[in-house]
């Protein structure tokens, strides 16, 4: 039903022949807000402007669109675009930063999943939901239901398991002091409708210390997810990927080899994690190989038997893309968008030019029609040569892209900037056709 609605709207606006957008073709851009920050600031370390902190949007089965923005104070704000018209004013999640988060590190960890008219996300130390019908945000699992302990969500698997009876996901939670001291967390199954956990397991080994969550990933095809963790045990440092099924059970523990991993004692809570962390989220192909980018510029790839960090071919890797069951590492070479397929061995051997990303960028040149939906009714306006609001090229992000419609994703576009106390940028959502390679 969602695809039919979207296709009908796109055809009415653009007269498409097949009911879907061509590769690199844009649908109607929907202007929803002026956000503090400048998109180019993240690309240039010498730029003193505030960077625009956004990740790829997602959508639910009703066609509602969800956008997460991180403001200048590190607070996340979620905007909801109704399927037919209009946007919410934005709601905060009310989270705190994770313990040991470094200065300048983004607090938004990404979307976790959607349903008919709801989306869930993890930001700071909070698990939260946003209602697609009302635009209202609520925290989930803020306190332990039995002990009333204030909980910190230190990991959340980006896969929502939905049945006729309930919707659940798996998370790692701790009390404030345990999180601060890097003690073993509890692995819990969270009932998203009851907003409490319904099952839990202790972290193994129970005497592990200096526990650091390095990243998370989801695999909807196999109804599972992964949490990458490093910890000390018996005088050595271990790095593992825990594969977790929809019931919250650990089905595999995959040993990982990271060149930057080393044993460290953590009585000093300010000590930084020696291992690089996953940027964005891990993604998995149909063969069960997870891949993601690391903060040291390498790629992490593994399956249930194990894996390692790897040096990539000679290109600037900036994103991960799942398309038609395959995983691609995306980035730039000679200032052009490129991508390389993750092989069954977990390596990336060949990098090719990505014409779909280039066509999408070219489609924003000149005077572009935009529907201003900040107020109702929406009004048509025009932007002169807007740019991608996320990264340097369309479709390149370390976070998953949404399957908005057949061979179509959703993307955020930055228009004019305005000077006030802080530089603010006009931002719009738009569907755009995508193809690989």
How would you sum up this structure, described in words?
This protein is mainly beta. The chain has a single domain, classed as Methylamine Dehydrogenase, Chain H. 6% of the residues lie in helices and 47% in strands. It has three helices and 32 strands. The protein has helices at residues 2-14, 176-180, 355-362; strands spanning 29-36, 53-54, 58-59, 65-70, 76-81, 91-92, 108-114, 118-123, 126-131, 137-140, 151-156, 161-162, 167-175, 186-191, 196-202, 209-219, 224-233, 236-245, 250-257, 278-284, 290-294, 299-303, 306-310, 316-323, 326-333, 336-342, 348-353, 367-372, 379-384, 387-388, 408-419, 423-433. The chain has an eight-stranded mixed barrel. A hairpin with a 4-residue loop joins β21 and β22. The longest helix has 13 residues, at 2-14. It starts with a helix and ends with a strand. The model is unreliable at 1-18 (pLDDT under 50).
